[in-house]
Amino acid sequence: MAVAIVTSSISCLPADQVKRYTIKIVPVPFMLDGRSYLDGVDISTTEVYEMLAYKMPFRTSAPAPGDFIKAYHEALKKSDAVLCLTVPTKISMMYESASNAARQMPPGSKVHVMDAGTAAGGQALIDLAAARAAAAGATLEELIDLVKEIQSKVHLYGLIVAPQYLARTGRVPAPLPSAASFFSIKPVFTIGQGRVKFSGVVRSNKAGIERLISLMRETAEQKSVRVIVQHANAPKLAEDLRRRVEDAFNCSELLVTEFSPIIGFATGPGSLALAFQTEN
User: Fold this and answer.
1) Are 193 and 117 in contact (CB under 8 A)?
2) What pLDDT is recorded for position 92?
3) pLDDT at position 269, please?
4) CA 198 – CA 160 distance, rounded (Å)
5) When comparing pLDDT for 188 and 112, which is higher?
6) Rounded Cα–Cα distance for residues 229 and 122 (Å)
7) Measured over all CA atoms, what is the biggest interatomic distance in the chain, rounded to whole angstroms?
8) Average pLDDT, whole number, for the chain?
9) Apex CA 114: angle with CA 112 and CA 118, to 5°?
10) How many whole angstroms from its chain centre is CA 143?
């Protein structure tokens, strides 16, 4: 039974991987300076950053159920079942929207929606693991078990370089970004079990990269890892982090991608994320 993987543009998957595994991407809508866009369709990530979008009004929302229904129908033209992976319910309404869409599919349609428990590069690693297993012939039930198994092996740490932008999302109390900016400190965060947690602060970008490497070393130890480095318009910082990871760990895969504008808006310019999956 062929199974298609459906996910959203917020995973920031590399285009070559999307094409290779025929992953169906549902673009996330957003408003920038009064105009509507679909992430990765109407405007590229690079174009958003070049517009200095951080200084413009920005608003985003989860894709509507109709967007997911369209993706499911297209996926089922060539597959027998669909596994849809979304960001955590505590971060977005995407899971609810995707589940609502699944309930509206014709009787007999095999569509299963899962909360990935993580986001950005963390979700991208889960998306890719599921897509590779599906390409190898895994059934829907086997893919569900696989995702549950690897969720505990996927970790995501991030560095906020410009904390003054954090308050715009409404998910971070305003005093924290203000205090971080005033004292010139940069928060380090993690996403686990569907929650964003702050795990310390650093004084410089260099110290931030060292902190990310230290956190990864504590978890990865000597295991082989698959890694995704992501950045918000900070290619030099991302390259510095990539080199450090490559030198310090046994990487079976090491990818670098830009954050979706959706995440870049929430984290601010210059932010970095280090996502990795430990392997047996």
Assistant:
1) yes
2) 86
3) 80
4) 10
5) 112
6) 10
7) 58
8) 87
9) 160
10) 19
Region of residue 160 (left: phi > 0; alpha: psi -120 to 50; beta: else): beta
Q: Which two tokens stand for residue 97?
A: 């929207």
Given pLDDT bands bounded at 50, 70 and 90, which one contains residue 192? low
Cα→Cα distances 272→5, 25, 76, 107, 253, Å: 26, 23, 36, 43, 18
The candidate with the shortest Cα–Cα distance to 124, out of 270, 263, 3, is 263
Residues recorded for the chain: 280
| Structure token pair of residue 223 | 């295991």
> Which of the 8 DSSP states describes residue 63?
P
Please, are residues 216 and 275 in contact by the beta-carbon 8 Å criterion? no
Rounded CA separation 180/44 (Å)? 30
For 139-183, give the secondary structure using H, E and C.
CHHHHHHHHHHHHHHEEEEEECCCHHHHHHHCCCCCHHHHHHHHC
> For the whole model, what pTM was predicted?
0.89
Helix axes 94-103, 65-76, angle to 10 degrees: 60
Per-residue pLDDT at 184:
58
Q: For 201-213, how does the pLDDT look when each residue is reduced to its tens digit (9 = 90+)?
A: 888 999 999 999 9
Q: What digits encode the pLDDT tens for the residues 79-113?
A: 999 999 999 888 889 999 999 999 999 999 999 99
Q: Please, which residues have CB within 8 angstroms of residue 221's CB and are 6 or more apart in sequence?
A: none
Which tokens belong to 174? Answer: 């305003």
DSSP secondary structure code for residue 79 in this structure: -
Domains of the chain: 3-151 (3.40.50.10170), 153-278 (3.30.1180.10)
Whole-angstrom Cα distance, residue 143 to residue 83? 8
As a whole number of Å, the end-to-end CA separation of the chain is: 27
pLDDT higher than threshold 60 for residue 170: no
pLDDT digits (tens, 9 = 90+) for 115-138: 999 989 999 999 999 999 999 999
Identity at 259, one-letter amino acid code: F
